[in-house]
Amino acid sequence: QLRTSLLDMSAVLPSLSRPANHSRISYAAMFDAGSTGTRIHVYTFIQSYSEQLPVLDNEVFHSIKPGLSAYADYPEAAGETVRMLLKVAKKSVPRLDWKRTPLVLRATAGLRLLPAAKAQALLDQVQHVFDESPFLVSDNSVSIMNGTNEGVLAWISLNFLTGHLKAPAMKTVGILDLGGGSTQITFLPKRRVSLFFFCFFRFVFPLHFCVSLIFNWAFLPQQTIESAPGDDYVARFDFLNSTSELYTHSYLGNGLMAGRLATLGALGAEGLEWQVFKSSCLPSTFRDDWSFGGLTYQVSGDPNGQAGYKLCYQEVLKAVKGIIHQPYELQDGGVFYAFSYYFDRAVDAGLINNVHGGTLQVRGFKKRAKEVCNKMTKYPPVSPFLCMDLTYITCLLKDGFGFKDSAVLQLTKKVKNVEASWALGAMLDHFHKLRIH
Ligand SMILES: O=c1ccn([C@@H]2O[C@H](COP(=O)(O)OP(=O)(O)O)[C@@H](O)[C@H]2O)c(=O)[nH]1
């Protein structure tokens, strides 16, 4: 079982778990209302009397498809989804603890993409289900989370789980999250202090190495932050009595499902009853209905037989070019954890193990995209969208964020048995106010 200190980053935390007889067990349930599904994370914490902050002992995770936005016109049905997931909370939390176990729901891209009134009707329905439940429901229990928080909280979750928040000067990992409706990139720009450290030991390193480090020391960190296109590419949060500054951005409309719509030219289109959206990223003989966000689209391959990687890449590029900003510095050699649809599609493509994940170079996605796209009509893949999805991921990483072919991603579903997601970070924020700004 996982027993990791919850806020190692605040130094007031226990280093590892404490014996249960000196502790009190508590629970908390975080609902993730995503564009493609709704999930519950029930966390068990051990609160030591001698420590200010708790230790994470366990996570119970369950998910249901589709997401709340699929019920945009039937909010009661959305409430039913939440009611079903509440059964997981009731099973995981002892009855005596229900009254003091907080419920929190944060919605992401699915609700951000809906008209405000429809999104509010769904949130009201969830609030009603929460209020009827025997759990602890506070004023800000149900809301739409903004994209910046989504990126920052996922970064906090992953760095906490991988043990990278123990000391302020420690190396951290970047995160890449590919949802259905939006995608997030977050990393800590290089720190001057570590580069200065190398030059301090100049006698060990060659002169040109030191000169280049001094150049980086002088320019890189500011460049990443200062060359960011706007305030919504930089976020700060408080820990260890100091404020950390991250490069982060959430691209609404660039999740994998929204990316499919953009590729098909169906984003915001009218006449869905009679239009057929064609793409050379789909097998030429393929034709079917496809639903996302409560709408159904008729989609097909190109009946003239135009299909394959090159044509497909040109199509997906339209959804990426001029939209995704390339950060000045992508942590040269730094580690990026890639999860959600990056993980799922790498599994579908046979690139990684479906339990353990693994490392993959960006060129691995590209190579597999070419193979799948160039023979999809002869050898239908597991999903008719696999060519489009792998090509979109390749394009997003390379022409979007600007990763090199040789960049290595750590494809991850769980770390120490806990889901790679923003949910744990959001729970920390709910309890300990990280003041993301
Ligand atoms: O705890 C989680 C939350 C999400 N996902 C994956 O994240 C992707 C979709 O994310 P979502 O529907 O939340 O999209 P968003 O609303 O963030 O755009 C799917 O592959 C999910 O299986 C996951 O594996 N674990």
TrEMBL record:
Chief location bin: endoplasmic reticulum
Active site: 150
Pathway membership, UniProt: Protein modification; protein glycosylation
Broad class of enzyme this protein falls into: hydrolase
Cofactor(s) required for function per UniProt: Ca(2+); Mg(2+)
Entry keyword annotation includes Secreted: yes
Keywords: ATP-binding, Calcium, Disulfide bond, Endoplasmic reticulum, Glycoprotein, Hydrolase, Magnesium, Nucleotide-binding, Secreted, Signal
EC number(s) from the headed UniProt entry: 3.6.1.6
Superkingdom in the source lineage: Eukaryota
One term under GO cellular component: endoplasmic reticulum
Cell compartment(s), UniProt: Endoplasmic reticulum; Secreted
Catalytic activity: CDP + H2O = CMP + phosphate + H(+); IDP + H2O = IMP + phosphate + H(+); UDP + H2O = UMP + phosphate + H(+); ADP + H2O = AMP + phosphate + H(+)
Stored InterPro entries: GDA1_CD39_NTPase (IPR000407)
Described purpose of this protein according to its UniProt entry: Hydrolyzes nucleoside diphosphates with a preference for GDP, IDP and UDP compared to ADP and CDP. In the lumen of the endoplasmic reticulum, hydrolyzes UDP that acts as an end-product feedback inhibitor of the UDP-Glc:glycoprotein glucosyltransferases. UMP can be transported back by an UDP-sugar antiporter to the cytosol where it is consumed to regenerate UDP-glucose. Therefore, it positively regulates protein reglucosylation by clearing UDP from the ER lumen and by promoting the regeneration of UDP-glucose.
Family label: Belongs to the GDA1/CD39 NTPase family.
Quaternary structure note: Monomer; active form. Homodimer; disulfide-linked. Homodimers are enzymatically inactive.
Protein name, entry field: nucleoside diphosphate phosphatase
Species this protein is from: Fundulus heteroclitus
